[in-house]
Amino acid sequence: MMSSRRWSAILAAIAVGAAAAVVPVSSASAATMADYVVVSVTGLNFGDDVAFGDPNITMTYTITALQDVTLSTSGWYTPAPDAALSETSGGACPGMSVFSTSRFLAAGAVCTMSVVFNPSVYLAPLTSVQGGRGWTASGAGGVATDQVYLPYTALVHSLDIEPRSLSFTAPPATLSPAQTVTFTNTAAVPLSPLALTSVEPAFLLDPGTCTAALPVGGSCVASIQYQGGALFDSVEGRVKVDYTATGNAGQREFTDFIGYVRLSGWTYVTPPLTNIAITKVLVDRGPIGAGSRLEWAITVTNLSTVDATNVYFYDFPEDPLIHDGTTAPGCESEPQPVGVQSGVTVRSGWASCNLGTIPAGTSLQFSSFALVPDDVPPGTVLTNNASVYPAEQDSDYSDNFTSASTPPTVAFADLSIAKRALTAAVAPGDPVTWILQVANHGPDDATAAVVTDTLPAGLTVTDVPAGCAAAGAIVTCTSASVAAGAFIEFEIGTSVDARAAGAEVANAASISAETHDPDLTNNDASASVSIQLASSGMAPLWWAVLGPVLLVAGVVLLAVRRRPEARRID
Fold this sequence. Notes:
CATH architecture of the largest domain: Sandwich
Number of strands: 41
Helix content: under 10%
Radius of gyration: 53 Å
Largest sheet: 6 strands, mixed
Number of helices: 3
Shape: elongated
Number of domains: 4
Structural class: mainly beta
């Protein structure tokens, strides 16, 4: 429904356009209504909402002929004179009325017509009334190429009903909770008490406070209940509202048979309600990257006092994760892809398991797994989803779904080190060259790689390559980056101390980097050399010391044995 301001603006525009064209046109020109007449309107307030009992509303419009013209009605709907809207003629237009089809107006003639609307004729809660008048014109310029329309509308209020529709549910042979309806008097006069009638006996009606008259602006409240019928029955009906009021036109009384409240009811069996909840937490096993196998700890809990049966669990990791099994019980048994645990149904990267019955107040815990593909770049957040549903109706479905994400993935570089000596056996004073080989098995480049070689006693550093430095018995070699699939090699020169002659000397080295290494079992290496006795054939040092001592001891022993025995003198 348009407001009076909008209609006033439209008609004012028509009047302004009409007034602008006051010069008669020749028969050779294309004439418009503005060439023939000027239309002005006053009191156009039909578009406003009006209330039953308001005073009559009058719209007056005046037509002024700019030249000789014949007006013809366009046939647009206008109520008969005895209806609520009555159109009358006046001024210089005698006889031009609702039933007139045409009228000649000489140049300068003025025709005034009125429409009177009586809101008290209507009493329905929301009654829309529409009407209007339209003309075409012809004259020296021919038939006008446009028309003039004067529409009018009104929405008559008397009773507001809120809500207008109600729906009910109830178990068989039981009474549903009461629902209320509020009635408000929007008329300009008091209304009689409301006569409320339910046309469907399945609904119980309590008129409440609506048995008293409603003053202007007053409200009353009635309640309605549904009596549950047989199982799964459905029923519809309405509450009819009758009332009377006295308007301003001769104190006439009207009764409304139109206003009603729509009702619908449904009979059902209340099912047992469970409340199954699921949580999913990533098991922290350190940095995550390409090739990682992730584990989520899952807990399914029955929060209700009713056992939950046929509880189905679904695990569906988001791309690019690859489902890799679950320890959940009751999974379907089907052939599994390589690497997927037996007993898990995998369809496009997800699992479905029947967990069976979860008793009231108990929980079930298990794990699900997923693989990180080798092509996942660092900085990727990975997400795994899971849901669980019982066979029974769940009282709260908001906790039947869970989602857990990982921290951003990091670069992975699997570094390994190998070590060997160029000579397996050496003599004291001889040089020994150690070869260290570092390889990056990927999948990412390794940054800030550091090789540490700690020399054992008996070896002395004599030469280190570029990128390496010696500090006492420790040699450190660094590389800013080791590309995936590449390897680098270092040669460290040492000499053998004479004190290590005859010993087996082991030299160990290790590799590390800033980039995370997923396999540390190959980050250490060791190689050994045998140190021979002195090549000159001389006795070892211990014999050079102990030999003279034994020689002296032997001489002393021999001298003692040769000493003459003492003779006894009697």
